[in-house]
Amino acid sequence: MVVTSKIMVDHLSVNYRDVQALRNINLTVRPGKVVGVFGPNGAGKSTLVKAMLGLMPVVTGRVTYGDDILAHQLDRVAYVPQRSQIDWTFPATVWDVVMMGRVKQTGWFKRFSAPSHQIVQDSLERVGMADFCDRPIGALSGGQQQRVFLARALAQQAEIFCFDEPFVGVDQKTETVIFSIFRELAAAGKIVLVINHDLGESITNFDQLILLNKELIAAGPRDWVLTRDHMTRAYGGHVGFFGHVA
Amino acid sequence: MSLDLALNLAVLDWFFEPLQFAFMQRSLAVAIMVGVICSVVGSYLMVQRLALLGDAISHSVLPGLAIAFLLGVNIFIGAFIAGVISTVIIGWIHTRSPIKEDAAMGIVFSAFFALGITLITTIQRDNKIDLNHFLFGNILGVTGGDVRDTAIIAGLVLLAVAVLYKELLFYSFDPLGAQASGLPTGLLNAGLMVLIALTVVASMKVVGVILVLSLLIAPGATAYLLVPRLHQVMLLGAAIGVFSSVSGMYLSYYVNLPSGPAIVMVVSTLFALAFLLSPRHGVLVGPGRARPWRQLQRLLRPGL
């Protein structure tokens, strides 16, 4: 059992059109921790995760998980895009969306199995959305939509969970539910990688931080990353944030 | 004979009279099949906001059709190839230059359309083909071979959608999430383009390349206002597509209207009804929209 597999990012550079979006990133993401990816707008946070998963072309570098390229093992990955990237008027119910988490595992030309139905039901219950399974997704609040996406990720039964800005526009209850599930996933030895930009109180929920601004500023335990020097280099000048500045 | 029975017989007579003609049987068969596949495939176009792509592909089939005719090949095959080539060029321009996708579509489809019209106009001087039949359809002129070809295309399209339904649902809802879960989204997209091109080619005879967009988008859009899930949109859309095609044909038969436009007018009317009266989204009766309507009623009848 390869519970101790980690993601290694090795000399990763990414261009977006003609602009360099990420420059020579080296870092390691270990399982069992809730890892936050932080940085100012345009720092390349989403780009980093997409490039790690092979969702966009990289200029140089490689990203491995265990012994192989991460992009070749996407069936071990659950990725939740930003809520704003999704057309929520799409004709689908909550159940349909969470069931999408079982598509790859089910395989071509096959129907969803009874265990898959059970997994989807369990995932919905875990995020507190089981009562909404027949609801069209357009009739949900932002927080409920995000919990549906979290349930879809859970239904994928992945080893690596990546979330892009899961806390934008969600209510307090949803934030609590999401963080407690991140905690459970980490405790179960999963890799949990969360893009965030809110430097408020919630930052204390992350064990480790990756601080980014086109290049890697710092990566490691939260208190080690949150120094005034690092924050100035990432955000430049004035930034107020919750936490201790060493 | 009672009046009731006489009326019933008259209705039946009205319904069955056109069916005694072989050309009407063939036209109706093709119209029904096209009504189904246009609605099913068009549902994907609608949810992916690619309605303009349906228009682009349908206009782009013309040059392929003309070239196939010149070479003596099945014109369905030529049209299909031209439709696919146009989507490839659109994608190429859009990914390799700063030109946006909608601009690329506008450029490519008008270029293909112009080339097609030029070719067909040149050919039709010496041959027995009519540009208008391709532009506006010529459903009364369908041959037994057309019925067979349409049946083959409809079978292929419906089989593909049934078999790939869960993958296409995931891809069309959340392409990035689908790609990140390991699905080959490039292939799925290409497959979808092929389905659209096949559907457009099969629809040429019924409504022509200019009006096919209506049969692709309007049935699914009408159903979308009435039911909440994609497969329901497709099924109800197919029923709406079939009803529109068949009633358009009857209108065409009895009132002597051109059949393509008659079909399109029926489906557009159905959309307008759903837009105004859908219980879920209707402008006049939908939830949340009821209040302005009631206020208007109150204004008109202050006693209420």
TrEMBL record, chain B:
A GO BP entry is: response to zinc ion
For this UniProt record, the keywords arranged alphabetically read as follows: Membrane, Transmembrane, Transmembrane helix, Transport
Give the InterPro entries listed for this entry.
ABC_BtuC-like (IPR037294), ABC_TroCD (IPR001626)
Its subcellular locations are: Cell membrane; Membrane
* GO CC aspect terms: ATP-binding cassette (ABC) transporter complex
Region forming the signal peptide: none
Which residue ranges run through the membrane? 28-47, 67-92, 104-123, 151-171, 183-201, 207-226, 233-253, 259-277
Q: What membrane topology does the annotation report for this chain?
A: Multi-pass membrane protein
Q: Which family does it belong to?
A: Belongs to the ABC-3 integral membrane protein family.
The identity of this protein, by name, is Manganese ABC transporter permease
Supply the source organism's classification.
Answer: Bacteria, Bacillati, Cyanobacteriota, Cyanophyceae, Oculatellales
